[in-house]
């Protein structure tokens, strides 16, 4: 018996509008492919129903949707738009695991806030972005309702926290020590312990991959130019090359364009790091080539050659 290919149902205009209204989702189609845009906003609603005046994302709706997107032949990738205020830990981790397990390309963009359980949802994607005006809030696990003050309760909270830390650090570039430091910081939140990281600091810490996407280099490559009798209709503007994989025509031009478009992979800089960033100094010594370092009253001055992407985290400390 043969199986029919798995397709999402074809969407009429009314159905697309209803999907946007119900789930805050839209299927964006172009000649380059189809990307399903899914919003995760407000509070991630889990086993308990939130009040009627609370914006929520219901995990029982998103779970089957993600499973359908994974199997659909009509969807090439998934874009997650995030603006969360926390929510149910179990439900949030459940969604994050589903996203991380997808074989299709996924990307997340933190637009307003990534509060608490929103952080695992952001880093679960293959590539995570954050806009400069957004922020992520990191704090310890909270329990609501009746809490029994016995050692087993505190052990349970500790194990939940360990699960969250393991997931986040295994799907991002932040170390467990650094993330725990942010989570247990005092004096920053008025009624809690923890940290609020703006877009730049979230990227610099290694939690989020990239600040925005506007400056990502893009080259338009037109293949099979040997088979086209007339190429005058193709765009020949900036960052466009015409090649033939069969004959090799245009490949040198493509390589030259890639070299021109990409930033240098390694840079030599001089940094002044506060002494509280000792783990960062150790990382730079490990990953880069240390030229010199000097201990000053204001901090550690070090000249190092390292990967440009790594140094992007410390651009505020370059002197």
Which helices and strands occur, and which strands form pairs?
Layout: H1 13-23, E1 25-30, E2 33-45, E3 56-58, H2 59-71, E4 77-87, H3 89-100, E5 106-115, H4 118-123, E6 127-130, E7 135-138, H5 151-170, H6 176-183, E8 195-198, H7 199-204, E9 210-211, E10 220-222, E11 240-242, H8 251-261, E12 266-273, H9 278-287, E13 289-296, E14 299-307, H10 308-311
Parallel strand pairs: 2-3, 2-4, 4-5, 5-6, 5-7, 6-9, 10-11
Antiparallel strand pairs: 1-2, 7-8, 12-14, 13-14
Helix pairs in contact: 2-3
In short, what is this structure?
The protein is of the alpha/beta class. It has ten helices and 14 strands. The protein has helices spanning 13-23, 59-71, 89-100, 118-123, 151-170, 176-183, 199-204, 251-261, 278-287, 308-311, and strands at 25-30, 33-45, 56-58, 77-87, 106-115, 127-130, 135-138, 195-198, 210-211, 220-222, 240-242, 266-273, 289-296, 299-307.
Give the CA-based shape. Answer: flat
Low-confidence sequence ranges: 1-9
Overall helicity:
25-40%
Instruction: Supply Rg.
Output: 24 Å
Helical segment count: 10
Amino-to-carboxy terminus distance: 68 Å
Strand % is: 25-35%
Average pLDDT works out at 82
Structural class: alpha/beta
